[in-house]
Amino acid sequence: MKQWNKEEIRQLRLLLGLKQREFAEVIGTTREYVTKLETGKKKPSLVLKKLFDCLEEKHKGGKQ
């Protein structure tokens, strides 16, 4: 499982083509929390890290 630093989280969101508000809806949180994750003020929980892994894998799988 990836550790998911602030840059990786932002890159995942951009890879998915989502705005912060849309990404927040997908992961079940608020836009404000996404901002905190992307600026490094908050670190993702274990559950969010696993969700990010799944989203990344699903995106990669759909592009092959």
Concise synopsis of the structure shown:
The chain is mostly helical. Helix content is 70%, strand content 0%. It contains four helices and no strands.
Structure notes:
The radius of gyration is 11 Å and the shape is globular. It has 64 residues and is mainly alpha-helical. The protein is built from four helices and no strands. It has helices at 6-15, 20-27, 31-39, 46-63. The longest helix has 18 residues, at 46-63. The protein has a single domain (6-63), classed as Orthogonal Bundle (434 Repressor (Amino-terminal Domain)), CATH 1.10.260.
CATH topology: 434 Repressor (Amino-terminal Domain)
Q: Could you tell me how far the N terminus lies from the C terminus, measured between alpha carbons in angstroms?
A: 21 Å
Determine Rg (CA atoms, Å).
11 Å
Unreliable runs, pLDDT <50, ≥5 residues? none
Number of helices: 4
CATH class: Mainly Alpha
Q: Structural class, from secondary structure content?
A: mainly alpha
Order of helices and strands: HHHH
Number of domains: 1
Overall geometry comes to: globular
Beta-strand share of residues:
under 5%
